[in-house]
Amino acid sequence: MSTVAVIIIILPAFCGAVEVNCSQPDHPSFLAALSPAFDLRAIRPVKNQLTYTNISVHFTLYGILGVDEKSQLLITYIWLYYWWKNEFISWDPVQCGTDKISLPKEKFWLPDIVINEFMEENKAPSVPYIYLFNDGKIKNSFPVRVVSSCNLNIYTFPFDIQNCSLTFNSYVYYALEIRVFLGRDPKIITELSKNVMTTMGEWELLDITAQKLVHDDESGLYTDKLAFYIQVRRRANMYVVNLLLPSCFLITLDLFSFLLPPQSTDRSSFKMTLILGYTVFLLIMNDLLPVTGNTIPLINVFFSLCLALMVASLLETILITNLLSNSPDFSPIPRWIRILVLNCLGCLVCMPRNTEKTKNSEKRKTSVAAEMKCNEGPPGTGGPAEEDEALTELKSLSRVLQTIRCEVEQQQKGKQSSEEWIQVGFIIDRLLFGLYIVFISVSFITIIIVWINSYNQ
């Protein structure tokens, strides 16, 4: 009954407010003729409340102010345009002297269109006027500083491309009362935005697309939504020059440090200086790296691997220095190390085991034994006393020779074990050198491919 009473009360106002009659073609008389329509600003401007109001929405992107990776925010500055029709107002442009007029916003009903991703208050200057046309259409345009939430994916930083959305819908009215439509082709919006954009910073606008979010519910008890998708790309030149190239230069310098003699103390001190310099470099450039809890950027993994390789090369230099200095005191090399390192890894890094010295020593042993047998000669023909004296001297000489032989064999075994340990050190050194070359090559190729792909999109 209350609804019927309200309709009966305002129905005469509807009928009287449809057509505006101007007494004279000037603004004061025109404004006086519009006064009855201003009294209807509290309700949605349709004759039949079952008719929904079409809100046409589009915008022009004027600037990309920044992206906050830690808070997952996109900050943009846009000019927003709303169009809708007020069915209570229409006039003859010849009679009233104009086909449009700008009037204060508070005299009209305004749609409560909001951006769902809005995270902060709009700090842009307000525009107090709207344009009213003779057929009842209303244009409302105003600037908006949009701080919107965006799910940022920085895995490929600094070659990342972000796709953020701005969803427009009514805050109170359902789809039975307000429908939101796209007011301009997204390609035109993209071109206009690129032409007028004055502030982009490290970000470049790629494309703006739009999509009407359709609901399967036919009851209409939902808000009608229109989503715009803003695709931006980070300008990677600064990060390549300030982050990637210095890191690649330092890791390449560490690679060439393998050309220094392993037994030299300059090699270990040089590597320690490189590690210290790389650590200071990462601390200085830490502000340029993104901070977020979603994913770890690939560039952070690259820096960690570079630092790990530098530390591994320093530890390997310490190991080789220890092998070269103390290898004579080591026990004979175990069998599994001989098979795994000397035979397998040695062939892999083109350093096969040197067995010629072992064969020569064995040949030398057999030749010495043959000479000793030849020097024994035939049994003597002298008397028993002479034979006993000669036998005693030969036995004592034999003991001395056996002692010398044992010492020589021990020295040869120790020398052979020392050479094997030294060869193990050289194989490890060459193996790490090969890993350095593979890592640097793969890193350079990956950076170039990702860089090219980001600019081809």
Structure notes:
- By secondary structure, this protein is of the alpha+beta class.
- The chain is built from 10 helices and 10 strands.
- The protein has helices at residues 2-17, 27-38, 93-96, 186-196, 237-256, 265-284, 298-326, 335-348, 356-374, 384-456, and strands at residues 53-68, 73-85, 100-104, 113-115, 129-133, 137-149, 161-170, 178-182, 203-213, 225-234.
- A 6-stranded mixed sheet has the order 3-5-6-2-1-8, with helices on one face.
- Helix 5 runs parallel beside helix 7 and helix 6 (265-284) runs antiparallel to helix 7.
- The protein is rod-shaped and about 165 Å long.
Features:
single chain; 457 residues; alpha+beta; Acetylcholine Binding Protein, Chain: A; 10 helices; 10 strands; disordered N terminus
Q: What is the total tally of β strands?
A: 10
Mean pLDDT: 79
Specify Rg, calculated over alpha carbons: 44 Å
CATH names the topology of the largest domain as Acetylcholine Binding Protein, Chain: A
Largest sheet: 6 strands, mixed
Strands ordered across the widest β-sheet: 3-5-6-2-1-8
Oligomer status: single chain
CATH class categorisation of the largest domain: Mainly Beta
CATH architecture annotation of the largest domain: Distorted Sandwich
Question: Number of DSSP helices?
Answer: 10
Query: What is the overall silhouette?
Result: rod-shaped
Tell me roughly what share of residues is in helical segments. 40-55%
Looking at this structure, what is the CATH superfamily of the largest domain?
Neurotransmitter-gated ion-channel ligand-binding domain
* Cα end-to-end separation: 61 Å
